[in-house]
Amino acid sequence: MSIPNAKIVDCTIRDGGLVNNWDFSVEFVQDMYRALSLAGVEYMEIGYKNSPKLLKGADAGPWRFLDEGFLREVISKKSDTKLSALVDIGRVDENDILPREQSALDLIRVACYIQDVDKAVDLINKFHRMGYETTINIMALSHVMENDLVEAFEEIKKSPVDVVYVVDSYGNFDHKDTNYLVSKFQSMLPEKTLGIHAHNNMQLAFSNTLLAHEKGVSFLDSSVYGMGRAAGNCNTELLVGYLKNPRYELRPVLEFIEKHMLATREKWEWGYIIPYMVTGLLNEHPRVAMAARASADKDKFAEFYDKLTSPEVNPAQSIE
Amino acid sequence: MSIPNAKIVDCTIRDGGLVNNWDFSVEFVQDMYRALSLAGVEYMEIGYKNSPKLLKGADAGPWRFLDEGFLREVISKKSDTKLSALVDIGRVDENDILPREQSALDLIRVACYIQDVDKAVDLINKFHRMGYETTINIMALSHVMENDLVEAFEEIKKSPVDVVYVVDSYGNFDHKDTNYLVSKFQSMLPEKTLGIHAHNNMQLAFSNTLLAHEKGVSFLDSSVYGMGRAAGNCNTELLVGYLKNPRYELRPVLEFIEKHMLATREKWEWGYIIPYMVTGLLNEHPRVAMAARASADKDKFAEFYDKLTSPEVNPAQSIE
Questions:
Q1: pTM across the whole model
Q2: B204, B258, B301 member nearest A257 (Cβ)
Q3: A296 and A248 in one domain?
Q4: Model ipTM value
């Protein structure tokens, strides 16, 4: 099988915004768009297209509630690098979305849990009719039973969605899990393009992304310097540096890291940090680790591990 | 094929010593031995058994020039965790080595470049006769031509060496390289147990180690919190947490990280750092990146990349 060319979808502003509450300056975002354009990255996810009316936290800045007027000011001249936004079920007001020809956005991605695939497909139908490229990203697949997944595939199969994502929200997948799910998606959705969104809790995000790509997955999510929630994502600079495609240039990404990411990492934390490794290993949502990292006990790793593995402390471990 | 049980060889003191010039306190090393013993780790490499007469830098502390008397003071009571030391060709005085029954050491590993395999085999013959378990670690395999490797295998095949290591000194291997070399070693050395020593320049050390293990490689090198030269090694805590073997316990390793490694990492640097990523990607020795990190230009990543990729700046790139 010949491997389709990868399309890198850089999620730094969107997934990284979960780290710093979208505290990115306009200059940061403009420099990033320029760097990704020069690097040959195909898509930049520039934030969430959620509605401030439907979600608290409207103080989080413009990248969480993208506005078309603002977006045109920030990215006044588009390059080959397309722009993407993510929407969450129940947090997007469809009336906020312009038809694609009037929008700076090219791609709208819909994130949902397995029980909301019907709602996601409904949104995708609408976005598709408005001319957008679309993806569906079913989150937390490591907590999904296969009969539910098979049922969801039936909905997705009938939808016009362009790309279906394998999402390892908890950073729990190893190569066998990645292999298994990609094969499953490929056999159940033979007509769909696939994507992968990996988290780096066990330092496997880059490896899982490469292995998925070699099996034919073409949309590869990443973020610069790995910036993303908790342990972060597959690193854009690793993909750009590693993948054999003459369009990719590593240097602009390195320049951006040097100019912006080192200082950002000084101010905010993400990456391979022990509590995130532990939640990845235990296949748990990172929120408990994020809470620990925000507390005075942030470095009490053994205690944290006890808490997550002792039934008397963590009720989730003792439910039958 | 059933996969042989892994044997974890923790190299923190030895390979990590290359980071901090072996500035480990006796308490640090004792706590580590206790932690690895409780964690079920099979081997702890406690340093180099080089001779201060044959190597400058005798100020580097006892872990670079292990002395049996000192070792017995440090590890007064041995657990199930065996002790290992590494020797370099030309830096070891064979007269320094006691017979195994008088030594605290169980395993002596011989590191060499491909052109010194004959000298390594000669040493191994001697150590073997003295009762030690032995390994041969051919370094920098990503710079070795296969005809030379095949020739080396002929020497190794005839030797009594217990374990032959696949060593990715430059952190350049991906899963295809790992797969290729492990298969090659297995077909050429069917009687030998194999080991892997990976570096983490591209965040692939853990993944490569797992993939090698699944192909039947059983000696897995790692270090706690990844501490090792430049980008460091596969993380011991990831192996202990991930591998399915009831003897392994993650908690003691987490406790050790909490007590010692966070402060050590504050003082010394290793891990995923851009210049190391670049040398890994370009399949170069990390020394040029280590020099850059020790200079005032440590964070000039784009300039560093230019230096390594421009023939007019890096003569190695223009030699034909």
A1: 0.95
A2: B301
A3: no
A4: 0.94
